[in-house]
Automatic annotation (TrEMBL):
Keywords: Signal
PANTHER family: COPPER RADICAL OXIDASE, SECRETED PROTEIN-RELATED
Domain spans labelled WSC: 46-140, 156-252, 257-351, 384-477, 495-591
InterPro entries xref list: Gal_Oxase/kelch_b-propeller, Gal_Oxidase_central_sf, Glyoxal_oxidase_N, GO-like_E_set, Ig-like_fold, Ig_E-set, WSC_carb-bd
Pfam family of the protein (one): WSC
Transmembrane segments: none
UniProt cross-references to SUPFAM superfamilies, sorted A to Z: E set domains, Galactose oxidase, central domain
Residues of the signal peptide: 1-24
Name of the protein described by the UniProt record: Copper radical oxidase
Amino acid sequence: MAPTFVHSALSGLLLISTATIVSAGALEKRILVPRVLTPPAKPATNWTYLGCYTDSVGARSLTGAAYNSGTAMTDEACVSFCISKNMIYAGTEYAGECYCGNSIASTGTPAASTDCNMACNGNAAEPCGGPNRLTVFNTTAPAGPVGPFVNPGVNGYHSLGCYTDSVGARTLATGVQTTGGQGALTVALCTSACAAGGYTYAGVEYASECYCSNTIASTGTSATLTDCNMVCNGNSTEYCGGPNRLNLYSNLQAPVGWKSLGCYTDSVNGRTLTVPEYPGTMTIELCTSTCKTAGYIYAGVEYGGECYCGNAFANGGGPAPDGSAGCNMPCAGNGQETCGGSNRLNVFQQSGTTASTTSAAPASSTVATSTAVGSGSATGLPKGWTYQGCYIDGANGRILQTQEPDSSTNTIEQCTATCIGLGYSVSGMEYGVNCFCDNFLRNGGTLTSDTDCNMVCPGNTAEKCGAGNRMSIYSNATLQVYQPPAPQKTNLTGNWTYQGCLLDNAETRTFPYQLILPNNNTANNCLQSCQKFGYGAGGMEYSDECYCGDVANIAAAGATLMPESDCNSVCSGNSSYICGGGDRISYYKWTGTPLNSWNFATGNAAGQYQFLIGGVIVPLIATPGINGKVTFLEKYGTGPPNTTGAYELDLKQLNNFTGAWRPMHVKSDVFCSGGLTLPDKAGRQINVGGWANDATYGIRLYAPDGTPGVWGKNDWQENVNEVSLQAGRWYPTPMIMANGSILVVGGEQGSNGAPVPSLELLPKVGPVVYCDWLDRTDPYNLYPFLAVLPSGGIFVAYYNEARILDEVTLLTKKVLPNIPGAVNDFLGGRTYPFEGTAVLMPQHAPYTDHLVVMLCGGSIPGPEFALDNCVFTAPEDTNPVWTVERMPSKRVISCMTALPDGTYLILNGGQQGRAGFGLCTEPNHNAILYDPSKPVNNRMTSMANTTIDRLYHSEAVLIDDGRVLVSGSDPEDVRFVQEYRVEVFIPPYLMGSPAQPVVTIAATSKDWAYGQSYSIGVSSAPSKISLMGAVSSTHGNSMGQRTIFPAFSCSGLSCTVTAPPNAHVCPPGWFQLFMLDANGVPSVAQWVRIGGDPASLGNWPNFPDFQPLPGV
């Protein structure tokens, strides 16, 4: 009988076997002890705790600097970081995020202090906010002083950087006095003085000196910007040179002999200037000089460091419809100059040359057109300038970009002369006094009747200077008109259809997923991302924002279509097209075959959750044994203090609570260890690693004994002084290799310690093998997913990466593409702490198809929204590709169980957060059935719901009768209970209590050699026979999982099954053999061993505390 202490200490728990679920929950609540989190009163000098405040991803309460820490966040650390950024507010959120600001946004409002209930991951005694909640601190001390910095320019002068100078050979020849004398010098005073003297260049030196000139002496050369390090006597926030160093300024818009044409469009596939040059570290002067030397009249600088030359504009390139906004990248050789941008050129033309274009087809829908010439009234125009007609202005925006100051003496000649002086080839007069300049007409300027331009010029009443929204246009070249940008409606990738301009709201977004594409936002780039991740609605906003979601999001947000004119921002990746506007989305809808088609089962087809038995512990790891029972291990101290922390559940004694739970014992803390069933004769279970100190080196073994209904006598064996890991490991993954050895991969030193980026073999062979890929991705790679590949090699997935290891050297053999994460965050991870789950897809005889690996769920850094997709690939393919399949809901810290019919049950977890205590919310109660035999994107069925929250430290395993045993949940969170109850999920194949077929296997036929045939007895003709690898379930990792459908043939009620051919297709181990009848109903499993014990684990470890050994 059970020991007395179990009966007496758990007498209250005995009632659970006959009590309601509510009673079990009430019991758990009685033993739950809430944590008390106390914010530091003074996290730094002059800093105080302000309170708990609301926050949201779409509208941050603190909008300054920010950072994230996965393991070391404290309130003090965050405050220190914000101090270093000269900010007066600091806030911590989601246990590991820090935000700073100099004010709290209006959207941030005080919240209940209990809302900030997540412990800092670097100090469990302090609160670090919560979901959409900030723990806020502030100081009354002002932010630190601004600057000093290099003044970018003033009074029409712009900075050229830092230049050398000397007393004997001045870079700028003329020294000048400035207002207030040397003690009051500023950049503005110096440039003003040089401008008054008619000088092109101005320079400040030694904090107090001002120099001017119309040329830069040859002795003056560009110097390192930090050499100009003395602040101005009259303004300590800006630099005024240094010893023998000038901060140099110029009022030239282009190098001498050149004129600026402005910002032009460009494309990699069709260059506006077709001759690339590579003169060195880029400046405007270097590019123009290079092009001139090479005989070209045009020069263009792009992307900070590229130079292009030409004698004509090609491929439809011309002035950018968004003006100079896209030319925003500093030159690599002079950060004070602008060298174009992404697909944008700053274009320059040699003075005295004539503009021209080629006949090449335009690269986009921006089309240049020629316009007929009209007649005008001006008589004194410069040679070559003619009247081009009266044009409508303002219909789609200004048709000429550069507006000069209004003039009460304006004439056609005066305005044209002004434009010529500025280097433009088009002039325009409007409303009498207005003068505009440009090189082309923009925004689809339309020719109208000359009589519309009927306002006289105030400087010459015989001339006409446009009218209201009418512009008199003059030019010295063939006039080109560029059409205004519009939504892209053709040449869309995929079956997307433009729907209109849709309302959005920065606080409550219409679509949930946002991508920022600062240089390449277009309809195709945005919508391809949405399509890949299964979202059938999306669009672009405010030029560089991309949003993805579902059509249903629109009604939920109350969004409606708005006037098309509200969407008026050009796309950052192609200014010919519109990408929304302020709080407006250029909205597209997928109108092809649905991107995903989920089924929603009802009745028996949905399966059912069913309460099984009340528990005695909250398990960390669950392992079905070959004796028909299930072992549970818990981390030390989770359950009541008088439990043993290790139990074996006898499913035959569910009506006898005491008999159902056999107490067992371990000697060290198994918190976050790994487990397997060994291929030795006894089917021993092994547990490796643990929480801290000796436990991290622990190797624990248990040989399942007893029979269903009868307690065994064996217990866990452990002695770290006799056998141990070479490296202490917390969160490791073990795996049986093809040669029968045990591979143990990864982990940390324990107690939130340093990484252990290595792997080792058991029984011990050689030293540990260092893995740079584990070191680099710590701490996001724990409990990596491992698998033996049929072609040889070992697959490993960790964080958002995957690779294949050589099974002999254990070194990298092949690196796979990165694993996709979220549509808006490729840094989403799949292993602890972002914890998704993984399985191997079924292998079918004759095993010619490559093995497919699938990973489901996970989370992203920062806001830690759970992932709503599965991804799968065949690692052995020549060029593996990850396919994304969207799930009906988000899921993190979940489980996935392989079923004997070849389907998979996805269950447990939450929809926000990550693994860890108190770090996951929004429990996901729904189960999903995944059927890989169906077409991609049609494989998922929403099944029954549970009423029990299964969060951190939950498990799901396949038991011998074909049901899924569901256990655990250890959130250590006042919002969710510590879960002792054990459930089962009944798959559809067992709903309605069908008679299960029977399989019989002789005791002498349960030890299979590779490729050999074995006889089994059946009660009816089977439709399938499956072999399900023995599993240990913890942290979403089903260690040992494998699904194999072997070849078989039957005659009457006798069948012959052929074992898999080798250890790469089927690593040595124990398997549940299921036979499914014609209706898909599985038998109760029979356990068989396949491949023997090639590493002789049955003779290991040969020490006193591990006797008797089972042998091989």
